[in-house]
Amino acid sequence: MTELLSVAQMRAAEAEAMRSGAATGLQLMERAGRGAVAAMLEEWPDLVAGRWRAVVLCGPGNNGGDGYVVARRLADRGWAVEVLALGDPARLGGDAAKMRALWTGPVAGLDEAGAGPRPGLLVDALFGTGLTRPLPWEAITAMRAVRDRAAGQPGERCRVLAIDCPSGLNCDTGRVDLPPSGDDAPEDAEARSHSAIGILSADLTVTFHAPKRGHYLEAGPGLCQRLRVVDIGLEPSEAPSPVEPPASGRVRLVGARSCAADLSGDLWPGQLLRPGAGDHKYRRGHVLVVSGGVGRGGAARLAARTALRIGAGLVTIGCPPAALQENAARLDAVMLRPLRDAAALEALLSDPRISGLVLGPGAGVGARTREMVGVALAARRGTVLDADALTSFAEAPEELFAQLHPGCVLTPHDGEFARLFPDLARRDRQTSRVDAALAAAARAGAVVLLKGVDTVIASPEGRAAVHVAAYGRSAPWLGTAGAGDVLSGMIAGLLAPGASAPQVAAEAAAWLHVEAARRFGPGLIAEDLPEILPAVFRDLGL
Ligand SMILES: NC(=O)C1=CN([C@@H]2O[C@H](COP(=O)(O)OP(=O)(O)OC[C@H]3O[C@@H](n4cnc5c(N)ncnc54)[C@H](O)[C@@H]3O)[C@@H](O)[C@H]2O)[C@@H](O)CC1
Ligand SMILES: Nc1ncnc2c1ncn2[C@@H]1O[C@H](COP(=O)(O)OP(=O)(O)O)[C@@H](O)[C@H]1O
Ligand SMILES: [K+]
User: Fold this and answer.
1) Which residues, 6+ apart, have CB-to-CB distance to 523 below 8 Å?
2) Where does the YjeF C-terminal domain lie (predicted)?
């Protein structure tokens, strides 16, 4: 699978290539600019023939250096190229200065961005991975001025190519750090952010060597729109194996696109799903889902049915005696046991064959759930804690952390995360969702799956993975009641046979969850997710 690099890791890869003599900085910059042009023409073949007009906005660092290479290469193809620089190009240093010197055309200031005919292409080479301060308003104003050249004119709008990243995107966090104000900035902060993000969005982003974390987190996918990675001849890092937890300090991208040809029934995630030829139901694990009371059992039933569909050999729902009748009317293959209180759960867990537990969906917030969680954790089975099992500890999260063990997976959404880890939810400028989930996992002593379009899975040992429902894997239909309950059933069903590390089970579940939603498509409700899993498995060749 693909690795998502931090900015520091990318810099280290570049420095290593230069140190070992594999390439000079100037060679890397030339390959970056050349690769960006080639990728852009592959993406938009209608631009291959003809002499188009491009506006290239060049910044004060190496991203600007890449921009001068792009400008030269486009001019060599016969394009009309306008170069506009932020700051004084005479103050460029190092390789960027050398690339500036190789550009023989004129260089104007950003204040001229609004003048001139409509370009077919706007190249954003203002800032890349080196931006550590808020983006200057003059960058936003210039981007808007070039886009506005097309306003009211017939023909296609101007396409935007971002070099390495749309300027302003923090490549570690995926957030955009906007300046507090500007002469022509809207007064209201939210309107300012909304309008700036619209102006900064690219149609195509070309990055180098490997994708960065910010391309996949938070605002990243929306800003980049389409992402292409160009090889610039740096040493590839060894691809992390999807069936082993990733190494500490490395972040892998979970998903079909990232493991392309490997994605088959024989490999990931097939190995986690295919029963052995001689397996009987007890070898495939027994999941117990602890349900809420009368009229509150739907969430547990969704989790239970999903655990069965994903491959657990047996699944039981334990519910308060008063809810037995209602559950019995709704269940067939899923078994049912009365569960009056924590003592009853303890008795049920004396059966060592119960190997996976789900607590939280529809459980109710309060002392009863806290006691149940305590008993469940003492039994040290593969355990998924979701929803009310998390919220029940909002007043005293340390009480929960003290009881957790390495076989647990917590599946908070952002709201639940903030209840358990309020300090980590208030992230500073440089702290990403990955950093926050890693810190949470370390504090909790359990795997934390932080849900969202960009789902982060982090382990206490410092291992992290990201699954993103974007870039051709979007699944907006998953924003539906009960989708989270289904995810907890998926994880428990994968954990129950005891063969997968919690981190690996959680990653595979995150992928299958989105895959199922995409396979079903519009109109999806949570009940559809377990029912479409067999089709997903057939597609995998299982
Ligand atoms: N790291 C690598 O391996 C490679 C990097 N390359 C390019 O180099 C880029 C990184 O270059 P840099 O580290 O020079 O950084 P950038 O060019 O992204 O931007 C940093 C520059 O902007 C200035 N700056 C930062 N915030 C500012 C603000 N608010 N207002 C005005 N100026 C500000 C900094 O002083 C610095 O000069 C990458 O994004 C990529 O485009 C490529 O040439 C290929 C190889
Ligand atoms: N727009 C979206 N794209 C992809 N996944 C989404 C989207 N909206 C929600 N999800 C996923 O759906 C699930 C919702 O879980 P949760 O918020 O716990 O809902 P519920 O409590 O109703 O089950 C999470 O796994 C989340 O990642
Ligand atoms: K850029």
Assistant:
1) 477
2) 264-540
pLDDT tens column, 126-152: 999 999 889 999 999 999 999 999 777
Residue 299 counted as an annotated binding residue: yes
pLDDT surpassing 90 at residue 283: no
Q: Which helix (H) or strand (E) holds 133?
A: none
ipTM above 0.90, yes or no: yes
**What lines the ligand 2 site, CB under 6 Å?**
387, 413, 451-453, 455, 469, 475-476, 478-479, 481-485, 487, 513
| Shared-domain flag, residues 285 and 227 | no
The tally of domains found in the chain comes to 2
CATH number at residue 143: 3.40.50.10260
Within-domain flag for 273 = no
pLDDT tens digits, residue range 14-60?
Answer: 999 999 999 999 999 999 999 999 999 999 999 999 899 999 999 99
Is 139 a member of any domain? yes
Ligand 1 pocket member 130 (CB < 6 A): yes
Do residues 25 and 166 both lie within one domain? yes
The residues near 422 (Cβ < 8 Å, ≥ 6 apart) are none
| C-alpha distances out from residue 169 to 58, 175, 212, 224, 264, Å | 16, 6, 11, 9, 34
